[in-house]
Amino acid sequence: xxxxxxxxxxDFSGVYVLRPTDVISVTVYREADLSLSDVTIGPDGxxxxxxxxxxxxxxxxxxxxxxxxxxxxxxxxLRNADVAVNVVNYASHRVTVEGAVQTPxxxxxxxxxxxxxxxxxxxxxxxxxxxEEIAVFRETPDGIAIAKFDYGxxxxxxxxxxxxxxxxxxxxxxxxLSQFWQDLLRTLPAFALFTNVNx
Length: 199
What we know:
Layout: E1 2-5, E2 23-28, E3 36-40, E4 46-49, E5 53-56, H1 62-76, E6 83-89, E7 94-99, E8 105-108, H2 115-121, E9 134-140, E10 143-149, H3 151-156, E11 169-172, H4 179-187, E12 195-198
Parallel strand pairs: 7-11
Antiparallel strand pairs: 1-12, 2-3, 2-6, 4-5, 7-8, 9-10, 9-11, 10-12
């Protein structure tokens, strides 16, 4: 096992970047036949647009995608196309909350939701929860990263309450984790720093 500590930037910077499985609407003003009310971004990151075919969507903001569609329509089919793209459902944003919480499960969240929000969606820690032992597992380009948080310190404002990333797994209390993860978490300080784990 090797671990190196890296602080990962928050997923939400104020401008949302589209992801596969998100549902969007595409409005081409004055061209109802070219508009889409609910279209899901596919696993390949694309949507199918009338006249244009496959259009890359994931990794762009809604405004950037609208500009791309406008450019494509103006180049071949329309003059002065006016396009708006809106997110209908942030379907890519799911967090798993498990361990000593009232209602464990998988929850949808809006961009910008913080760890305390995920715990609240699960109706809070149980009476016997080890509130100083909250583990967040996160997929990163370099593999799995993990950080340890103290719920009381977050509530008191003395510890960072991190922004959730799509696919995060939150575990309140470490008793349900394998011995490997329990041992690793004991070595980590609870100061909200994600540690990349190579296993």
